[in-house]
Amino acid sequence: MTLAVSMVGFGRFTITHLTRMVSSTLRSGGNAHSGRIFSIGSLPCIALPRLLPFAGLHLNPRKFSSDAFNTSSKPGLATPGLHHPFNHLNKMAVCKRSSSSSSLSPIHPRNGFCNANSTFYSKRNPLPLPANSSLDVTTFISSQAHNGTTAFIDAATGHRISFSDLWRAVDNVADCLYHDMRIRRGDVVLILSPNSISIPVVCLSVMSLGAVVTTANPLNTASEISRQVADCNPKLAFATPDQAPKLAASGAISVVLTEEDEERVGSTLGVRVVGSLSEMMKKKPSERRVRNRVNRDETAMLLYSSGTTGRSKGVIISHGNLIAHVARYIAEPLEPNQTFLCTVPLFHTFGLLNYALATVALGSTVVLLRKFDLHGMMAAVEKYRATTLVLVPPILVAMINGSDLIKARYDLTLLKTVRSGGAPLSKEVTESFLERYPTVDIFQGYALTESNSSGASTDSVEESKRHGAVGLLSSGVEARVVDPDTGRIMGVNQTGELWLKGPAITKGYFRNEEATKETIGSEGWLKTGDLCCIDDGGFVFILDRLKELIKYKAYQVPPAELEGLLLTHPEIIDAAVIPFPDREVGQLPMAYVVRKTGSLLSEKTLMEFVAKQVAPYKRVRKVAFVSSIPKNPSGKILRKDLIKLATSNSTG
User: Fold this and answer.
1) CB 3.0–4.6 Å: which of 128, 255, 324, 363 could bond 503 by disulfide?
2) Residue 95: what pLDDT?
3) Which residues contact 102 (CB under 8 A, 6 or more apart)?
4) What does the DSSP 8-state code read for residue 356?
5) Distance CA 321, CA 319 (A)
6) The model scores a pTM over 0.85
7) Sign, CA torsion 50/56/57/59
């Protein structure tokens, strides 16, 4: 027997209201039992999809529909109620030649290239975007049907949270934020924490209110964090007790502790502590809470990305951007019942968008590693029976170097896949890993904070065999390859700067119109700053970085920031920082320094000077003293000359 409940016309409902309604309906129907399929006709409120698991009920994805989206479909037809911006290339996909011509040109089925507009289109399944413009990402994620049970596990403590408890916690925390903390639509909430179950709880709660999430790197210094706080002006911060003191220099910001620590609460932190997350998660929601409708164009997150100018910029991420990202996983679903071990930081777009948000929609289990330790990671793979390991290339190299000990000590029978991101994998590293771990497949991806984890990826064993490629374009993504000198749009197997376009691409930088205009074109094209080519099969190869960012262990290090810091030293008159290639970490920040006449400044003293003022990943690791820094007539540092000098000296 299938029960149907019409919810048309209801606008202000809490979990408590709906629980009573569903309970009453089930009682009136008689013989209600766990496992009954519940068919809903209309859904004006976020709470109902998350309510059903609490009652032991399950959504039938073929019968579920709402005013937000409709997943009923027929074979061979576009899903009703869903917007498909790109036709699948197996069909008669076409592209417009120009605005002045009505003639059409086919998209090449092998590489996705359209000659008419010199644009590459994704070969993957169409992106199923909901048509409703008044939809927040928390609602979208919570409304996806799945069979998952455990959402997150803390690798260090073993603490775990089920999906039903996760959504209950999200509702409780959102209620406290609204009533007790007075968080409103558009308010910014900062998260300062290492990997923790608290991060997805806080993110989903904040965004459900139409408020904005911003994350900070817990490795950053107090001064670095204070600059971010000054830029985005958060009304509230969630922080661990050991991180909270870093906010003392940021003014009178209120802090909620994400972990209990009796000894460090209060004045010893130097900040105003207004509550604890554990208490917020336990508090029952108020019946007077009203959930606002959120427009998809409204900002959901501000994630800070390092720039070549030396100052990080807040990337504006809308609810629509995040919905497009999650929809990508729905269009190209992962294998069911996967357990991910996540070693990448959740403050970063790679970890946050993929393994704190998208996996929740899929019902996958994510095991969170607070900090990287090779043997701690492998022990967690064995203990929690992880099927997929999420990491960055330097960790892959560590697994290669320690392969004999790892295979002798740990049971990796269930480990089937490694997903790598943050920086491209070289062909040599990939082949070396597969030689040592022949039963484990490597999938990698390419994306930027500005593209919200959409770009390119390898998602199958066959695709992963194209060593050196970062993969095929993601669902819903268009790409152009543009000559950086002439602006000419290139074609297949030609080299140029990679431009990306699609529903996941940011609309710009927070309070930085100049940077937005430099990076986002008038037609919405994101200029990635990466040199690439796309081959006959549609595979993307990243060849070099036009941008000057240094990738140290997949962290972005802006050389201009370090150069500015070096020039504050009284014995330095000029400096340049370059990426020095390193097999273990990718690239090392190396400084070329011009000392004042008579100065005895040493390499060690200089590195200590920098280390005291920046996060560990930004530290200068190599120093060379020179008489002058090579520059062009306009005064720009000729970094390629310095890189060539550094690498020739290291091999010579």
Assistant:
1) 324
2) 66
3) none
4) I
5) 5
6) no
7) positive
